[in-house]
Each structure stands twice: as structure tokens, then as C-alpha cells.
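One thing: could you explain this record?
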Amino acid sequence: MNRREFVRLMGLASSASLLSSCGLERETEKLIPYLVPPDDGVVPGVSVHFNTTCTECPAGCGVSAKVMDRRAAKLEGIETHPVNEGALCIRGQASISTLYHPDRLRHPFIKDGQGDFQQTTWDNAYSIITDALKNASGDKTGSGVDPKPRKHVFLSGRTTGTFSEAVDSFCKETGVERLPEFEFYPYSAIREANRILFGRAQVPSYRIDEADLVLSIGADLFETFVNPVSFAAQFGRSKKRSSFGWIHLEPHVSLTGLQAKERHTIAPGGEIYLLSHLLREVSKVNVAGDRHIAGMAELLPDLLPRGFAEKTGLGVETLDALSRRLIRARRPLVIAGGVSTMQPSGLDVAVLTGLLQWATGMLGGTVRFEEAVDYDRVGSFRDVEQLEQRLESGDIGVLFLCRVDPFGTTAGGSGSHTLVKLKDNFEKATLRIGMGEFMTKTLEMCDVVLPLSHTLESWGDARPRGDILSVVQPAVEPIHDTRSDGDVLIQLTRAYQGAATALSYQEFLIGRLKVRHGSATIEKLLSEGFVKRRVEPLTVTLDRDALTHHLRRIIYDDSHVKPVLVVAPSIRFFDGRSRGLPLLSEIPDPLTTVSYGGWVSISEATAEELTVKDTDEVTVSVSGWKTALPVKIQKGLPRGVMMIQWASHDDTPFDFDRMSGEMMTIYEGAAIAKTGRSVAIPALSGSLTPEGRKVIPYLGEEDQHHHGESEGHPTFYPKHEHKDYRWGMVIDLDLCIGCSACAAACYIENNIPVVGAKLHLDGREMSWIRIEPVYAEEGDNVEFLPMLCQHCENAPCETVCPVYATYHNPEGLNAQVYNRCVGTRYCSNNCPYKVRRFNWFDFKRPDDKNATVNPEVSIRGKGVMEKCTFCIQRIRGARDTAKDEKRKIKDGEVIPACAQTCPTNAIHFGNLEDETTEVGRLAKSERAFQALGFLGTDPGVYYLRGVWKKVHG
């Protein structure tokens, strides 16, 4: 043995002994990669990326998982992915925490005789299930006599791709009936409407980026509708075109509506009258050249313009302008969805929208069925009702539930007779097997619970659209004793058949994909994360007989009873499945800045009638449902309309339309009354209006806030010299949609602690970037202002720090030396932007063993001030690369986490000293201004004024 080998081995042994003596239980082999480069290519401290697919919602965005030292630390969008184009939403960013969540299921469980869960082995669980499957009678008494054989059934959430084939194979081999899949937002009205119109029960692809006019009706395009990230990216590109117009109509207030160039409030239920008016006007000019359109339009209400105005709540001039603009548009796009199709007349709204798309020639252009979203196997709430009836009649033997939580996502299901009966009859199944990652409300009612691996631990594929195939591949080894859903089904099939061995789901997947697409495509799929396939244009034809039959049976109900309660989709929690992610409650709702808990939004007029103010408690009741909630006054909400957000609290009214199977979000005849109490709610913005401060000056305003004032303002500060770089940021307020994805990305990238509701009520949030909605003093115009450390040239925080913990570095950053900070908080007091955060406590992270900590960023402790650093760790990484290559950092080489995830590309970062860079050019734009620039702080963050003159009615 040579001397070097001896020293190396002695160092390893002594290190292991030292750790053992300290009471740290670590496997010896985990020390080896830090001394000897491992064979699998893992280099300590160097990240690797695995391209896979996000499964936090059904959209199927492509994500790149950043893995350091065999731990997944961050998710980013795949830049070239055609669905999300490198961006990621707030839920996708937060989903990384589910991998290491302490509440994840770690072992299989079975219920004992007392109804308590006991840990078991996979083999024992499989044995119990296969025995039950072979007992077709479902006899529970032990007598062996049951005159009525039972049917075993399989219910899952939405599946696409090869796993759907695996489910079919499992059901065929074991004699199990596969039920229609359960999705809380199944778009049943849209799919049923397209079945009636074109014989295709599908959700088509909407090409916003190819339209010159978008007319959206109720569709929450940026919250939950089909694929919010894709729509946001398309809008981000389209808004830059002067020819692009966007009109949004809705009965309430949404994040989507407040971003439209024109937003109009339509009366609840008035959508069918609006669409009838548009169809009648379009039929007069026969845009699409269909001679039957005029005849179809004759079946619609024939009202005078004033009559249509009364039914819709829109002015006669507004209706005329809408029809003229729709007729004149060369490539129009009409989208109806969200609350407008989730109401009693929702199916009729969807049918008339599809007919309008046909009558204006949108099909095959801005509306494409060849790129339809794969909801072919998804059922509706009518199927849930049928399952309840079968359970009540004793028809169900073994009930499989895979990644589905009907009792959790429906938040109690108050007011729904079907869900109450489903819960009551649930135990009538012989055996209930739940498969999932968490012990949900549904899995708590099961007899056997099988823990599933996280997406980042599993193999699979997904088909977000008809022309896209995405891969799901593991980035890390399974952390617990879990298995992928595909492996569970394959192993159950072999156990049922008595086979000794079974293929893994990975082998099943690769084998099917090779047969279908070939080896070359598989290699591209695994490396790039997706494959875009060429699809042939699809010609659809209008089924006039089915359409005529439906038009004749439409009931135009005029008896809308106010007040109306709108249960709006939640951008943070989707259908409730994301409620378990602490970060999503920590980041406030962008409309109200409320973080934790539930509330009811009411209009200013309603608040005046009730003589209530923010935080006053009221009782809200409708259709057998009643709850008490604090008030939040919402600008722009019409009189007589109240709004709560789905899954924002534990109990929400629920019902569905029996004709389409679509859930309801609009409830008429609601009642509201004061309780006399007040409930504190964590609203993180002190004021939602500028209070005369002109925080966001509009183009052409004469004020002191334009970008040149601070630069020429007299100052005692010495001028800073920047040799190579002055890092800065430009944020385009025209493109910012307030989705808060940037805030989620910042939390995860920079190890920002989640502090909880109590500290939020104390005003002790820790976010480094916040979205401030700035509502106009008059009207309901609003701009969303991302506020972060401004990295001022003349920074007020620097001069008051007694220990020089905050200082100006040579590259223009307002830097913070954490281990020098003594916590005087003078810097926070002196900051006019209020963007510095003080650690009052050593916060415990919500994930298991700090596994999602970014090792490139330190964790700040108690008594330390922290703030945005422009992701200085990324700047340093780019500087090291440039230094090795003996060059300067290139423009676009450094992208902070907030800018990387922004779906509309509203955030730009780079060197302000170089006018050839993107930020250097934009900072000199006539639209550019600095927040509170008159103070002379000369921020390094520039904002671009909005130029869309919004018309809100």
C-alpha cells in the first residue's frame, strides 16, 4: 500500500469514527462520494437535471428537476416544452415539497378489527387484495352464501399515456370493471357540448397566440382552466402585438378578468343571451359561409337590443361593439369556461359558444380538435352518482381508488345529497383499496392503503395534448417503502395469476413506447423530456339535427334571484389537492393579499348596505349550506354578488348539473347577515389603493416618478463606480398577471422559511418578493406590482447599519452579510419599500429533514435580517463559468428564479451598465419608471408602465 492510499483510508475511517462518536447515524458508504468520485457520475456540489412532467394538476407541464447530492432541490420548466415554454405556475413550483413532506405515506396499511390502521408488508397487502378479488360473491358474513354476485371496480384520477393502458390490462386480467375517471374539473359541459355539436366529447386546443381578438366568457385562463401556464405564455407573446385585442366578460372578479384589455361584468346567467345576440349578428353576414347558420340563429331569442342589454347587464353600445369587433376580426377566438359553464345554464353556454366558433370559422384555426386535451376517459359527477347508487344496492365488491380523493376535493360536499349518500354507502363495498401519497379523507375510509411513489421517484408518460408526448422519469431513488402506481398494478396482476416474477413498470413502459415510436424517439423523449408529434388537420362537421334538438329544449330562465354566491376556482389550491402544501397558504391570494384561512368577498355597495368593513364576520347561507366567514371588500365586484374561493376553507357548497354532470359554482338566492363579531385575517397589504401616492404613474402623466428624476436628484451619497456590471431588473407591468409563481420560485430557491398564520397576523411575513395589487381610486382598474429589494444605488439601509452588515458591492447589489448582522433592524426601518425581513425565530421547515434546502444558499438563523439578493448564487455560478472561459458574463446567462418561472416573460435581468443588453435597453424606455423614484434612492429595479388602456364596465 502506498502512502497516498494509506492516508486516504485513514481519513475515511477517522471521519466515520468521529461521526459515530457524535451520535450521528450515517451509512459509511455515503461518505465515499465526498472522497472518491462515484461511478454513477454524481459530483458533490454539482447539480444534474432530469427532464420529467409535473403532475400537480392535469395540465402536464414539462419540468426539469435539479438534483444535488442525490436530492431533488428545485423544479423549473423545460424551456423548449410546447405546453409551458420554460415557465411554471405557483403550484408547480411548490410541488417539490410533496416529495419530502413529513405526512407522506411510508408503508402499506391495513385496518384491524377496531378500525385502526396497522402497518403491514406489501406481500400481505397483495394477498388480502387477491383473495378478495377471487371472491366474486363479496360475502362478508362468512356463510359463503350471497345470492347477488358483486362487481369489482377501479376508480382513478385522470390518466393518460401508457399508465392508462396498464390500468386496462390490470382490469382485463383480474376481471375488474374500469369506471370513468374522476376529475373535479372535468369540463363536462364543454365536452358534452362538443359531442352534441361535432360528435367529439373533447376539450379542444385554444390557440390564443394565433388570434387577433380573444373573447373570453367566464374562463379563468390564468387560474385553473385547462392549462393556465400555456395560456399565460401565449398572452405574454400576444400582448406585444398592437393588433391583438382581448375582451373578458364575467359575473364576478377574477385574476384573468383584471388582466384583459376590456373587462365587462355580465349578469349571472346572462351569458346565453349574450351568445344568442352574437350568433344572430354573425348569421347576418355568414362569416364562415354556412348557409344553415341563419336558420339555426332563428331558434334563438329574438329580442330588441334593449332587451338583450337588460338580460345581460351590458349596455346596448357595448353589445353592438362586441358584435362588430367579432365580425371584423380575421382570426377570432371565443372561449367560454369556468364559472360561466359551471352554472345551471352552463351546458347551453357551451353549446352556443361551440356554435359561434363554427359560425366564425374558428375550427381548424384558433380552435383545434386534432390537438385536443386528453379527457377521453374522464367521467362527470353523474358517474359519481351512479357509483353511489351501485354501492347502495350492494353491487360493488372490491373498490379500487387510485390517486383520487372525492371526499377531500369536494371539501365536505355540503348541500350535495349525492356525496352524503356516497359517504354513507362507502362501507357497503366488500373491500376498499386506496392508493395515494397521503392519507386523504377518502383513503381514511379504506381498508387497505397502498403508498405510491412521488412522480420524481417513478416512471411514466403523459399526453397533455394530442400532439405532445411527455416522459415521467425518476430523479431520485424512492425515499420510503413506496411503489409507483404502474408497478402496483403489474405486481397485483402477477399475484392474482400466481406468477412468480413480473416485469417492472419501467420495462412495460419502455417496451410499449418502443413498439409505438421506435428507439430513436425514446432516446429523445428521455433526454429532452417530451416529443412533439405531427398530427394531421382534423375536419369536423356540425351535427345539425342534434344541435337543433338541443336549441329547441333550451329554457331561458329569467328568474335569477340575488344575492348570488360565486364559488370561484383557486389559483393556489386548484381543486383542493394542493391544500396540503404549506407554501401555497403562505403566499397570499393576489386579489386580496389574504394568506391563511377563508373569507367572503363582497362588493363595496353590499358592504355599505350591510354597514360592514374588512374582518367583520358574516354568515353566508345558500342551498342548505351555511358558514360564518370574515369579510373582505373586493373592488370591481358587482352589487348582489358574493364570492368565496374553492378549497380556501374546510366547508364549501357543492352541487352539480344533472344534464352535463358539471359541478356548480354559482348559487342563487344566497343570504348574508352580520354576526356582530370580528375575525382577524392575515391581509399582507396595508392598502390596496395608491391613496393619492401615484405609485404606478401612467404613460403621459406629468409627475416626479419617471425614471430620470432619481438619477439627477441632489444627493449626499458618493457615486458608485461599476467596473464591469451593475446588475438590475426590469419588470413589465403590462405582462405581469399577478400569478405569484415568482414568489413561490423565490421561496424555494432561497430557502425562505414558511412562518404560518399566527406570524402573518403579527405582520411578520418572510417573503422576499410580494405581489402588490394596486387598484385605481376610481373604477376597478388594477395593476400588479412585484415588489422586492430595489438594490438602490443610494440605499437608505446601508447608511444606518452599525456593523456594516448591509453594503453596496462593486456590481451594484445591496448585499447582506448574514453572519455580521446583529439584528438592530435599523435597515428595515429606513427602507421606504419595506422589503427587508427579520428572522424572529429559528423556523422549522415543513419538509422532512430539510431535504429541499438549496445547498447553494445558506439558511439564515434567528436575529438576522434577510432580503432579495437577485439570486446572487446564480450570478456567482455564471461568473465562475465566465472566468474559466476568460470572458465576461453574457446577457441572459444569469436568470434569477423569479424571472425563470414567469410565464409571461415579464421579468428581465441583466447588466444596466451595458445599453446593448435587454435590461439596459428597456431601462431607457419611455415607459420605464422607478418606484418612489423622487426619493433619490436610484433603484436598480425599473418598471414599465402599462400601455393597455383597460375598459372595465
Summary: The first helix runs from residue 3 to 21. The chain has 28 helices and 37 strands. The chain has a mean pLDDT of 88. The chain has five domains: 1-36, 109-184+378-454+478-532, 188-373, 564-678, 707-950.
